[in-house]
TrEMBL record:
Originating organism: Streptomyces fructofermentans
Region (Disordered): 539-558
Protein name: Type I-E CRISPR-associated protein Cse1/CasA
Taxonomy, superkingdom: Bacteria
InterPro entries named in the record: CRISPR-assoc_prot_Cse1
Biased composition (Low complexity): 543-558
């Protein structure tokens, strides 16, 4: 913290985010450091990536930096101006002058315009609350799973700045304290208005080799036909400071959306640290049909909402399942909207606008077809009426940009098909586990789930390696066949293991119900069914062999 110079109305403590280190980064050698806003941009070529206290904090900070870059560069306006930035090693040189011009709005402790806060924010009782309200790595009711035991009592100014950014993006919903001047207050409370904006998303962004590449790859130009921009688009620090009440306006563009003030905040501090916070609701933002404004998530049509509102189409963000690896959902990242459309119907799914932009870069030849990116997926899973964060999703998928090519769809279709191959093969493995359990008189749900986890775990690394190298081949169909053989052999070995572990009782077997009556089910029959299902799923030559006549239908009802 430094002392602010100026007249009597502005003197006092200061923490200038343009010059004070507060953003955690990882350099090219794997060392961690803290940088100021100026340093982040001047050193972007040397920095590998941002690192946060949580993955969601990294996503929120990246969006903040993107808003700053969009505004400082006033663009890019089109793909040609973007290409000029990509070719210029010092493309962010002008951001220093921009920070000079707006330096006052980046002071975390400013008495009138504190960074992303509302000066004078208070409750009717002048309450100041624990920092647990903004520090998301302190689980509610689970203090033993954090280093901040039992609570977050003090934060450095750098830590507090990061959590302020995170709170606007990912704060939980639930009943919150009412602020003086907010007409939404009822009985001293404001009732649930939803999570922070990014909390509604299945966050997706593109990572390059350095932070400079990452920032540029996610810097979508104003001429993108899949997004809407307004001439007056600007970030939060170039708007009037927020009061206690909320606004129901619509975002004007990416600069506005990336810094959307979903909360009202005011930090309390002493000479050395932040000691408490006042936190309330800010500007609500409904996720429905925001696909032409928000590029950092995939979208899905919602038949339930369409029926309820008698409107079509209605798109909602596709949220991440923390238990599902990114490679299994590759279709949501690379499938073109035309490939999810039935006839004249609107597309069932939309891939993230960020990936639509990268698709344009490779289609128009600005990026080479073999250029490798990492699609990062980050999201929060909320529980108990969105009042707590239950889990976080954080994964990545390295892939060549040819998968996004808008005219040459062969590579993307084979990548999606390869993931489907894995899914079908693992389903066959789960069926085997179920059959072996039924052969000894047990319920098969637990065994099936464990077998599926085993199968997907065994195929994950091979798929990622196969995908990263897909652009190196001239024949993606042949590479798909190579992959199918890999899956056949891998899942086949896993099946061998399950059968060996099934025990004597499974080999002896028992009578079970089948579709056409009953069948004597034992490990031997379960094995034959498994091989047939696996071969059929992968189009393996073994699927053309003589059928097993021990039963006409190997599907055994659960």
């Amino acid at each position: 913290m430094t002392e602010r110079a100026g007249d009597s109305t502005t003197q006092g403590p200061s923490f200038d985010l343009t010059d004070q280190p507060w953003i955690e980064v990882l350099d090219g050698e794997g060392s961690q450091a803290q940088l100021s806003l100026r340093q982040v941009f001047t050193q972007a070529r040397k920095v590998r990536r941002i690192v946060g206290d949580l993955p969601t904090q990294e996503f929120a900070l990246l969006r903040l930096l993107l808003a700053l870059a969009h505004d400082a560069l006033d663009g890019p306006q089109d793909i040609d101006s973007w290409a000029e930035l990509w070719a210029d090693p010092d493309c962010f040189a002008g951001i220093g002058h921009y920070l000079d011009a707006h330096q006052e709005r980046f002071d975390l402790l400013h008495p009138h315009t504190p960074f992303l806060q509302s000066a004078g924010l208070r409750t009717a009782k002048d309450e100041v609350f624990s920092l647990n309200r903004i520090v998301a790595d302190v689980p509610n009711g689970e203090p033993f799973f954090t280093a901040r035991m039992p609570a977050a009592e003090r934060l450095t100014f750098a830590e507090a700045a990061r959590w302020v950014v995170h709170a606007h993006a990912y704060d939980t919903s639930g009943i919150k304290s009412g602020m003086v001047g907010d007409d939404r207050v009822k009985g001293g409370k404001v009732y649930p208005l939803g999570t922070g904006w990014a909390g509604a998303l299945g966050g997706v962004f593109v990572e390059g080799e350095t932070l400079r590449e990452t920032l540029l790859l996610n810097l979508v130009p104003a001429d993108s036909d899949h997004l809407e921009f307004a001439a007056e688009d600007r970030p939060a620090w170039r708007r009037e400071p927020c009061g206690a009440d909320g606004s129901a306006r619509t975002p004007t563009g990416l600069r506005d959306l990336y810094t959307w003030q979903t909360r009202r905040l005011r930090l309390h501090y002493d000479d050395d640290a932040v000691t408490g916070v006042v936190l309330g609701y800010g500007d609500p933002l409904a996720a429905r049909n925001m696909h032409r404004r928000e590029p950092m998530t995939a979208w899905r049509r919602s038949p339930a909402q369409e029926k309820k509102l008698r409107q079509s189409p209605i798109y909602l963000p596709r949220e991440h399942d923390p238990a599902r690896s990114a490679w299994r959902g590759i279709a949501s990242l690379v499938a073109d909207r035309s490939e999810t459309t039935q006839g004249a119907e609107a597309a069932a799914y939309l891939r993230p606008g960020i990936l639509e932009w990268v698709a344009r870069l490779v289609t128009e030849g600005v990026l080479p077809r073999d250029f490798l990116i990492r699609a990062r997926v980050i999201g929060a899973a909320y529980g108990t009426q969105q009042s707590v964060i239950d889990d976080l999703a954080d994964d990545h998928l390295a892939m060549p940009v040819v998968l996004l090519h808008q005219q040459d769809r062969m590579y993307a279709r084979q990548a999606i098909g390869a993931a489907e191959d894995a899914d079908l093969a693992v389903r066959a493995l789960g069926d085997l586990a179920t059959d072996l359990a039924r052969a000894v008189g047990s319920q098969g749900d637990g065994a099936r789930s464990a077998a599926r986890d085993l199968g997907f775990g065994a195929l994950e690394d091979p798929y990622r390696v196969w995908l990263a190298g897909l652009a190196d081949t001239d024949d993606p169909f042949e590479q798909r066949r190579v992959w199918q053989n890999t899956v056949f052999e891998t899942v086949g070995r896993l099946g061998d293991g399950l059968i060996k572990q099934s025990g004597q009782a499974a080999w002896q077997g028992r009578t079970v119900s089948a579709k056409n009556g009953t069948v004597w089910l034992n490990a031997g029959l379960a094995d034959r069914w498994f091989r047939r299902r696996l071969a059929k799923a992968l189009g393996h030559p073994a699927s053309t062999s003589e059928p097993d006549t021990s039963t006409t239908d190997p599907k055994v009802p659960a």
